[in-house]
């Protein structure tokens, strides 16, 4: 009989899955095949023993993360970013970041609850905290980083049913210098990894309840998986990788259920709906709610305004567009500012300075400027006649319409927006954009066709809301901002070009922000405010463009994905010379190289087994059991490592060493499962059983002691060093510089 609710019978995640079961009497019992004593069925560690071990590893994890937490008492590495963003939440000041808001919101909340007042500037690494209370934010990150060890312990214990495997995994993470360092500072990484490991643990626990579907524990772990998925996604977009892992696990489970002929379609539909509810709708609702809180809290104008649209900026208290009234539709003679829609595209701008010799035509510079300025003002005029003076009440108002050919005259210099077939200053194959003419008199290269995206010819053009493109009539190119910064002769403003590639991108789209025309009635910008759905979509477009456009800062140590598993190069968190208090992010070499060796061993086992089965080779019962335990027990974990590592090879953005740490969690769990199984396998050939247990226990103990000794050698990397650099032979760390690329 199937279990109640139509679920699958089986011991949990290590059960044989995917077979189609036929109703009928059970098959006759088979004779047990001989197998090594080490792999023979043995009672798992009792609940009391596993709970005591859990308490021990949790205590060690917290002790290692909170040891010397206040030091150094100054800003370290990216604390300058995320500590500052926590301050912005406390002060309710709007800012922009390439990551979703949950991690920064939690940092700000931790600071607020611990008495931090949000006044520390976080200007640069090395700034001393002085009297400011930074320990609440560091302590919060250290707390979440400490939880990774018990999460990994429980995950491995559930998958392998082996207490030594779980203890070995916990030991690896407790004594890894890299995990300790990354947990001790005001960073997003420990928050991300907390939700990531929470999702994996919840998924594994839910799988273990497969024989009790729709029970209270099954619903709890399934719902908690969804909550953790929302948390991981809400901290960084790389949370998508664990979403993919859970998604693949769910698809596999549903496929297995579909193959169960004893399960009715109604019951399968219930399983499907439960997963849609808990793993799709619940995470989406929580993720959306995070942004609702984010935009509600950050209601004051701040440094992030310029990254967002004018319509969004009008909702921020203190912004020059907040609570103002402007004419709604554009008319000839209006004085306007135009904002480029690319992230940090700036306002269309000109000034008296000319392009230097050898840079296109020596005419007036036209740039994009990120700040409000009188040189951002332009007058809209007809292309074939001058527009009447705004102060003349007798002149009729004539609105600008989609498809009109216009001229833009720079208000300050009275020169027209102009383009020609000279090459742009920085962007090859784009045309130069200049200011040309005298008192509005120029030539036909000053004519532009104004078009609104998605509108029909003849329609009016709205301030803030209409997205427009300006097509140069003579050459057919589109006015746009390349995003490239001009040299000092261009005052390090952003290059404006006319691109012949006729494609609507944020670079070539603009909106009108300021609008001055005394002949037109004003309307409050509140009627133009975007909906929450529009704000949510805009924020994600800005984050995605920002992420893809990240560039390394000056003298910053970046890395390549192939560097990471071999622990090739670390990151300086604090200090650059022998007089500084130095902290260096680098993994425990024994741990990382053991993990790398294990991954290779795992892949070899998987490939060899697959080839042998394909060729029809009969494996011994021992090898079958070894492959079953390693592949089934570590399959989900190995998949997690691949999903959290391989995508980085395809990313075009700048990458850093710390991006590998989520994958490192999976490789550490895989190491615990694989070595526990291998030691059991080899010990199983020994007789009597006491000798097998000694070899097995001695092997686990040797690995633990080796890891602890390596931690003893390298712990100053995490807890701070003062004195000569390791490159100096007199340094106490000189003998530990095993790779020339290590710079501690």
Description:
- The protein is an alpha+beta fold.
- The chain folds into two domains: 49-293 and 570-717, no CATH class; 325-524, Trefoil (Acidic Fibroblast Growth Factor, subunit A) (Trefoil), CATH 2.80.10.
- It is built from 17 helices and 16 strands.
- The chain has helices at residues 47-66, 79-91, 102-113, 135-160, 163-174, 177-183, 189-208, 216-235, 240-258, 265-297, 310-313, 532-548, 589-614, 621-645, 661-683, 689-714, 716-719, and strands spanning 325-327, 335-340, 347-354, 364-369, 378-382, 405-410, 416-423, 431-436, 448-452, 468-472, 478-485, 494-499, 510-516, 522-524, 571-574, 583-585.
- The strands form four sheets. A six-stranded antiparallel beta sheet has the order 10-9-6-5-2-13, with no helix packed on it. Strands 3, 4, 7, 8, 11 and 12 form a six-stranded antiparallel beta sheet that branches. Strands 1-14 form a two-stranded antiparallel sheet.
- A hairpin with an 8-residue loop joins strand 11 (478-485) and strand 12 (494-499).
- The longest helix has 33 residues, at 265-297.
- The chain is elongated.
The portion of residues forming beta strands comes to: 5-15%
Q: Could you say which structural class the secondary elements and strand pairing correspond to?
A: alpha+beta
Mean pLDDT: 87
Number of domains: 2
The number of helical elements comes to: 17
Instruction: Please tally the β strands and state the result.
Output: 16
Shape: elongated
Radius of gyration: 32 Å
Low-confidence stretches: 1-43
Helix share bin = 40-55%
Report the biggest beta sheet as strand number plus sense, adding barrel if it closes.
6 strands, antiparallel
Q: Looking across the biggest beta sheet, what order are the strands in?
A: 10-9-6-5-2-13
Distance between the termini: 63 Å
């Amino acid at each position: 009989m199937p279990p109640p609710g139509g679920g699958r019978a089986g011991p949990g995640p290590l059960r044989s899955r995917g077979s189609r079961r036929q109703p009928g009497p059970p098959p006759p019992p088979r004779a047990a095949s001989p197998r090594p004593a080490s792999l023979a069925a043995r009672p798992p560690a009792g609940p009391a023993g596993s709970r005591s071990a859990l308490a021990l590893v949790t205590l060690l994890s917290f002790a290692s993360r909170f040891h010397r937490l206040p030091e150094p008492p100054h800003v370290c590495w990216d604390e300058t970013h995320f500590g500052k963003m926590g301050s912005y939440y406390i002060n309710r000041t709007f800012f922009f970041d390439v990551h979703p808001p949950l991690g920064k919101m939690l940092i700000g909340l931790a600071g607020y609850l611990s008495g931090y007042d949000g006044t520390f500037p976080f200007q640069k690494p090395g700034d001393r905290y002085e009297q400011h209370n930074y320990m609440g934010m560091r302590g919060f990150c250290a707390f979440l980083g400490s939880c990774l060890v018990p999460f990994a312990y429980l995950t491995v214990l559930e998958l392998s049913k082996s207490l030594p495997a779980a203890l070995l995994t916990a030991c690896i993470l407790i004594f890894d210098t890299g995990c300790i360092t990354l947990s001790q500072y005001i960073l997003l990484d420990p928050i991300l990894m907390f939700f990531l490991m929470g999702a994996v643990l919840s998924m594994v626990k839910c799988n273990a309840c497969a024989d009790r579907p729709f029970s209270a524990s099954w619903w709890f772990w399934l719902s908690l998986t969804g909550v953790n998925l929302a948390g991981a996604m809400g901290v960084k977009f790389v949370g998508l990788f664990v979403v993919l892992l859970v998604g693949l696990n769910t698809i596999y489970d549903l496929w297995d259920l579909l193959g169960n002929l004893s399960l009715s379609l109604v019951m399968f539909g219930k399983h499907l709906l439960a997963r849609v509810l808990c793993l799709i709708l619940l995470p989406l609702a929580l993720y959306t709610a995070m942004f609702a809180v984010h935009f509600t809290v950050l209601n004051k104008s701040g440094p992030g305004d310029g990254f967002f649209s004018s319509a969004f900026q009008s909702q921020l208290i203190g912004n020059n567009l907040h609570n103002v009234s402007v004419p709604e539709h554009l008319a000839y003679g209006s004085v306007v500012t135009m904002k480029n829609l690319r992230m940090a595209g700036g306002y269309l701008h000109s000034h008296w300075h000319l392009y230097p010799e050898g840079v296109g035509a020596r005419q007036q510079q036209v740039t994009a400027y990120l700040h409000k300025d009188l040189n951002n003002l332009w007058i809209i005029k007809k292309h074939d006649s001058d527009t009447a003076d705004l102060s003349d009440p007798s002149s009729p108002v004539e609105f600008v319409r989609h498809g009109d050919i216009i001229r833009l005259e720079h208000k300050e210099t009275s020169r027209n927006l102009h383009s020609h077939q000279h090459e742009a200053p920085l962007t090859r194959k784009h045309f130069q954009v200049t200011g040309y003419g005298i008192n509005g008199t120029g030539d036909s290269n000053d004519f532009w066709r104004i078009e609104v995206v998605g509108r029909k010819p003849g329609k009016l053009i709205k301030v803030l809301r209409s997205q427009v493109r300006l097509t140069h009539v003579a050459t057919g190119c589109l006015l746009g901002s390349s995003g490239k910064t001009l040299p000092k002769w261009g005052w390090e403003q952003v290059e404006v070009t006319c691109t012949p590639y006729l494609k609507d991108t944020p670079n070539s789209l603009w909106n009108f922000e300021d609008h001055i025309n005394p002949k037109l009635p004003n309307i409050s910008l509140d009627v133009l405010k975007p909906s929450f759905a529009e704000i949510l979509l805009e924020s994600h477009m800005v984050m995605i463009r920002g992420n893809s456009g990240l560039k390394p800062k000056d003298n910053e140590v970046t890395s390549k994905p192939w560097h990471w598993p071999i622990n090739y190069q670390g990151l300086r968190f604090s200090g650059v010379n022998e007089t500084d208090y130095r902290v260096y992010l680098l993994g425990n070499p024994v741990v990382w190289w053991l993990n790398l060796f294990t991954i290779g061993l795992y892949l070899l086992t998987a490939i060899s087994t697959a080839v042998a089965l394909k060729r029809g080779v009969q494996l011994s019962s021992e090898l079958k059991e070894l492959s079953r335990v390693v592949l089934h027990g570590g399959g989900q974990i190995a998949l997690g490592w691949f999903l959290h590592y391989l995508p980085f090879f395809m990313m075009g953005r700048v990458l850093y060493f710390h991006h590998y740490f989520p994958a490192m969690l999976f490789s550490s769990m895989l190491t615990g499962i694989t070595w526990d199984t291998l030691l059991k396998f080899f010990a199983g050939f020994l007789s009597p059983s006491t000798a097998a247990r000694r070899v097995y226990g001695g092997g686990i103990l040797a690995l633990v002691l080796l890891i602890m000794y390596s931690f003893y050698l390298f712990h100053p990397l995490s807890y701070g060093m003062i004195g000569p650099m390791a490159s100096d032979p007199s340094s106490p760390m000189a003998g530990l510089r095993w790779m020339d690329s290590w710079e501690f």
